[in-house]
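Researcher: I'm comparing several assemblies side by side, and this is the next one on my list. It has 296 residues spread over four chains. Same procedure as the others: predict the full complex and return the structure.
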Amino acid sequence: MRLILAITNALADETRVRAVLALQGGELCVCQLIELLGLAPSTISKHLFLLKQAQLIESRKEGRWIHYRLAGDDAPQAVRDALAWLFASAAKEPDALDDAKRLKTILKQDPEDICKRQMQSLKSCSCAPATPAAAKWRKAGLAISRAR
Amino acid sequence: MRLILAITNALADETRVRAVLALQGGELCVCQLIELLGLAPSTISKHLFLLKQAQLIESRKEGRWIHYRLAGDDAPQAVRDALAWLFASAAKEPDALDDAKRLKTILKQDPEDICKRQMQSLKSCSCAPATPAAAKWRKAGLAISRAR
DNA sequence: TCGTTAATTCGCCAATTGACGAATTATAGA
DNA sequence: TCTATAATTCGTCAATTGGCGAATTAACGA
């Protein structure tokens, strides 16, 4: 029951649902999620913590950057099925499609630029470099979302 | 997105999850749910309202009694899939098994007796008579839960 | 028609949640 | 080593939620 409620609670918030849907395309760093979701870094961080508690997402640290991705095949069945339910149910949601579109433009930008822009407008920031490791996890993320 | 969040919000509370799981065995009246869940009638009523808003359950009025049952095949795909996810994920939960056991003893009792006991201990109450219509919906409920 | 009663709605309170900024941690680079 | 920075944790606040009892609604039955 603990895990079930952690999952439903985690998915009972629009921002968190949008974050999970955004990760369908592969892993993202916090700064990209901040850019997409338009909330303060500390707020995003807390949301990601809740999603991670529910085992819906995993994270990988690379230097100063933390990359988040969807839970893998090692996740509990309840988690994988919940993600499958969400993706199927949200596939044609206007909000999700809009986010997917905006995410595309975010991914086209140099993460450094996103970082700098956030630095200027706010005062804390994060961004991700396009390292080989990141490319690998992005590919894995794509494979996962395709498999569902 | 509206429906998705209504569903996850509705299922993000232990009492409501227990109520939905209890309805797997067929329809129940509010008084039986009060007995099972051990909360005030007004509280149960509010929970059922939220579940109904999310289209996870439906209700049927029979005289003074209102019988709740799981959503049927006419419910949106997201709803039916969410219920299927919940039933699969909660199948072996100790809390659910315990509730199922206690529900059995509740169902064995004459609803009138449950009603009277609630009347005495509290001062508001509800119960359900074993009418032919109730038996029909109970049967339908069993068919639904078997199909998942 | 008038009580009785199953259930809901309403109003209130304590606890939780989501948001933010400030402070902190950890890592890269000068 | 010292600075800059990506991200988190902490403290605070307003808004929401879950709980209850009281009042209300709707339907049966004397």
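Model: For your comparison table: Residues 123-132, 141-148 of chain B have pLDDT under 50 and may be disordered.
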